[in-house]
Design a protein that fits this description.
Helix content: over 70%
Structural class: mainly alpha
Order of helices and strands: H
Strand content: under 5%
Number of strands: 0
Shape: rod-shaped
Number of helices: 1
Length: 102
């Protein structure tokens, strides 16, 4: 009977050790899986952030080009107005010079 009890205790200890070993292995696997998923998630987030940054840069470049084009158009229009105004005053200026020489 004492032998049966000792044998039962040994069996229980072996089962406990086996369960503890299995629990450690499961915990290590769970941690490794979590680390792998975290790494994948980080890579995905970084890729998405890079893509959004590239889109923002392209949008800013497009806005800059559009602003430059609009400024050039405006400057050309203003220059043309000044040329037209100067041309219309040319005859008047020549007449004033001629009158002042008389």
């Amino acid at each position: 009977m004492a032998t049966d009890t000792i044998e039962a205790i040994r069996t229980a200890e072996q089962q406990s050790d086996a369960a503890e070993k299995q629990a450690r292995q499961d915990a290590e696997r769970i941690v490794a899986d979590a680390e792998a998923k975290a790494s994948e998630l980080k890579a995905s987030i970084m890729k998405e952030a890079r893509e959004k940054a590239e889109e923002a840069v392209k949008a800013a470049e497009n806005d800059g080009k559009r602003f430059t084009e609009e400024a050039e158009k405006s400057a050309k229009a203003e220059t043309e107005k000044l040329r037209t105004a100067a041309a219309s005053k040319e005859d008047e200026a020549i007449q004033l010079i001629i009158n002042s020489l008389r």
